[in-house]
Amino acid sequence: MIDVRPFASLGAADHGWLDARHHFSFADYHDPGRMGWGPLRVWNDDTIAPNSGFPPHPHANMEIITYVRSGAITHQDSLGNRGRTEAGDVQVMSAGSGIRHAEYNLEAEPTTLFQIWIMPDRAGGQPSWGARPFPKGDRAGQFVTLASGIAGDEDALPIRTNGRVVAATLRAGETTEYELGAHRFGYLVPATGRVEVNGQVLNTRDGAAIRDTPVLVVTALEDAELVLVDAA
């Protein structure tokens, strides 16, 4: 089962400094049919204006993955962490028992990113933050794991859930596969480009909620950059 969710159907909120699109119910956007997908709770498609951002605010018991599409985001938190994550890089914050953080676009251009929240397998624990680069060239033609709580994914940023976040870049005409497993939840979004997933066409920034599909076969109809959450 693949349920395509066109970009135009997503929840929307324009705050001036923040233009947000919500794949799932979030803040003032509520759709009882889009409350999450398995443990995946939030997928926000954000454009943040220059010299603006999210002031300090708290989180607990959530794995928060930021995939920067263009520009850069600067993080600071109550643990004393500070870092700048730019396009091609990924950051993960495990909120654990509680953390306060701020995310600012200190650049001269807008920053675009996906903010992905996944529920942890267990509540509490020491909060943490980490970031690392994932060159897009390394993802050419195949899915590469960016963040994971699955054994064997030691090269990825750690998250505290039975899931992973993967990404791929495909040239027009290229095909790649991902073994999702019949009983797992998948959610795939093309950051750029147009693709076909098991016969279903997705345009740029559309979402696809996937279930009971052991293998995903993805063909790029044009040059594309893809992000996929695989969770149980």
How does this structure look, described?
The protein has strands at 2-5, 11-14, 18-22, 40-48, 52-59, 63-70, 72-77, 82-86, 89-94, 99-105, 111-118, 128-133, 144-148, 157-158, 163-170, 175-179, 185-192, 195-197, 200-202, 207-210, 215-220, 224-231. With 232 residues, the protein is mainly beta. The chain has a single domain (2-231), classed as Sandwich (Jelly Rolls), CATH 2.60.120.10. The strands form four sheets. A seven-stranded mixed beta sheet has the order 1-20-17-22-15-13-14, with no helix packed on it. The chain has a seven-stranded antiparallel beta sheet with strand order 2-3-4-11-6-9-12, with no helix packed on it. Strand 7 and strand 8 (82-86) form a beta hairpin. The chain is globular, with a radius of gyration of 17 Å. The chain starts with a strand and ends with a strand.
Gist of the model:
By secondary structure, the chain is mainly beta. The protein contains no helices and 22 strands. The radius of gyration is 17 Å and the shape is globular.
Characteristic key phrases:
232 residues; Jelly Rolls; seven-stranded mixed sheet; seven-stranded antiparallel sheet; 55% strand
Distance between the termini: 16 Å
What number of domains? 1
Sheet with most strands:
7 strands, mixed
Question: Uncertain spans, ≥5 residues at pLDDT below 50?
Answer: none
CATH superfamily: Jelly Rolls
Multimer state:
single chain
Number of helices: 0
* Number of strand segments: 22
Give the CATH level 1 class.
Mainly Beta
Radius of gyration, in angstroms, nearest whole number: 17 Å
Look at the structure and give the mean pLDDT. Answer: 97
Please estimate the helix content. Answer: under 10%
**Would you list the SSEs in sequence order as H and E?**
EEEEEEEEEEEEEEEEEEEEEE
What's the architecture, going by CATH? Sandwich
What is the CATH topology descriptor?
Jelly Rolls
Structural class computed from helices and strand pairing: mainly beta
